[in-house]
Structures are given as structure tokens and as C-alpha cells.
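[READ THE FOLD]
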Amino acid sequence: MMGMTRKALRSLASSVLTAVHRTEAPRILYYHRVDNDDQRSCVRPEQFLQQMGYLSAHAYHVIALEGLCHSLVSGKALPARSVVLTFDDGFADNYTQAYPILQRFGFPATIFLTVGFIGMDELPVLSGPHRPARPLTWQQVGEMGRHGISFGSHTLTHPSLPQLGEVELRQEVYGSRLLLQEKLARDIQFFCYPKGEFTAPVKAVVQQAGYAGACSVYPGSVRMNNDLFALPRTYIGRDDTLNDFRKKLCGAYDLLHSGVQLWRRVRSRRPSSR
């Protein structure tokens, strides 16, 4: 009952906001897994295929993250309906499921790798009642890198960066970039904050490490005055129908998601009653 009520309220809010707040400004979408596991952050392969088909059929410009950031730096506006595709963590299904679909449509994407787990048996990032997920291998990363997929750092071990000391923070931010550059023999330009958690000191370390930009989980479209080290993104998950996907592309959920994130931040700052 609670789940049905939540979905009904979500649908009603998005319908109202679609009517009053519609935008075709550039937008960064972010995914985690593409697989049939029953997990909120796991989009089914047929669902992902429908979404990529929608972008293609409705004349969206799917561009690389590098291209979007170049436009922000140069001040040159991007075409309406420009979309960037990103994936967090570096799960093996990004290669086995998402990559063939991206190739089918000729879409670029950026995968943010939790570098310390690449090539291991398990990527223990997403929690929930699903089977342990495997990370990408370096061979899979190399193949995708030769065919339109770029890679960024999601740290070495996916910690909460604001909770780290200075030495550990620099190791996660600097060390992951250096290892990626060594393995891929190319410059690594972008970073993604684990769980979207960062502070001004964390952001400063990311800038000092030589990255050109960083992705957050702040909702919304990308504006010309956006902070390159706090780029907003739009979450796509298992519960999103194709109609939800369409609404998210035009900003229907931005205000709702901003309110949810604000509420969570306020709750996290409240003193414990224990």
C-alpha cells in the first residue's frame, strides 16, 4: 500500500511539474547497473533499450561528457535536447548489457570506475537483496575505451569522502586517477563523488588532482554557469517507466528530487534522540 501511494504521489507531482516546468537544456543522466536483478538501481536491459530508442527516435543529441564540459568552458551553447550518459561504479553488466545497446545507437558514455575493484570477483557497492555483482575487468574497460566509451574515477574503494582524513582523501582521489591513467594510457579528466557526498575541502582536492570536472547527484539540467566540479545529474532507476524517463528528460522531477535531497540533509543534521 505504501509503495502504491508513493508511486501515485510521484506520478501526480511529475504530471503537474511537467506542465509548469519544462526544459530542453542539456542534461546528464546517470545509471548504475543494467541487468535483471530486482534492485532499485538496476535497470532491466529491455528497459534500457527502450530508453536509448526513445532518445534516438526523438532527436536527442547524445554527446560525450567532454563535449558538454568544453561548451561550459568556452561559453558555446549546446543544441537543445543534448544528453550525456554516465554510469557509476563500474559493474560488469555495463559491458555485457549496456555496451551492446550503446553501440547499436552509436551513443558515447562515461563510466566512473571504483578503480580498486576492477578485475576482482565482486563490487560491493550497492546494498540490497540481490546477488553479489561483478565489476568490469581491465580487458573489458580497454575494449570499450577503443569504441566510444570514456572512463572517469569513482575513487579506489567508494568511501564517504567527507569522512576521510587528508591522507586517505588524497589517496582515493589522486591514487585512483594515477592508476586509471597507467592502465588506460590516457588522461583521466573526470571524477564522480561516491554517493554524491562532498564538501568544499573535498572538491578542492579533486581540483588539485588535475581533473577537469566532477559529477554530483544534485538534480537538474546543466546551465552555462554551473560549477564544473558539482555537475548536476538525473538519476534513472528500475522504477522509471518510459513515461517517467520522458518526464525526467524535460525536468519534471527536478524540483521534487531537490526537495527530497534537502529533507535528507536536514534529517542527517538532526541530533540523535538516543
